[in-house]
Predict the 3D structure of the following.
Amino acid sequence: CAAAALRRDWAAPGPPTTMGVQCDLVPVVVMGACGTGKSRIGQALADRLGRKFLDGDDFHPKANKEKMARGTPLEDEDRAPWLEAIACEIGARLERGEAVVFACSALKRRYREVLCSRAPSTVFVHLSGSEVWVPCCCNAVADVQRRLMTNKELIG
């Protein structure tokens, strides 16, 4: 996955690409712990980039939703079909030429590996801090947009 950076192959003709995918189509996953503002920042980023926003929470199977409603934490086995559903959606949209921004916790490396299994060009934007703090830094949305469009590294 292009989890940390977008790089321009200056010798290649045409629009900038990441792993052969035009930068304006590179899937973006806004990731972070609960309460960091993934959905809020993800929606703002999608709006700014003119992309469809999808919330990973909407892809949980019924059993996961019931478990969470009871206050029972999900195990890795519970997350596997959920992550695979998100990966399939990311891959399908990329194949159709649809740019997407997803919000998903994706805190473990193996989760991120599943998420980019159908779209290796996927870029992860890691939010940290609290939702109270993150919106104060909404220029981060503009910064991510600028970096995606100019192929600058998404670190920092």
Q: What stands out?
A: The CA atoms of residues 41 and 141 lie 7 Å apart. The longest helix spans residues 76-95. DSSP finds five helices and six strands in the chain. The two ends are 18 Å apart (CA to CA).
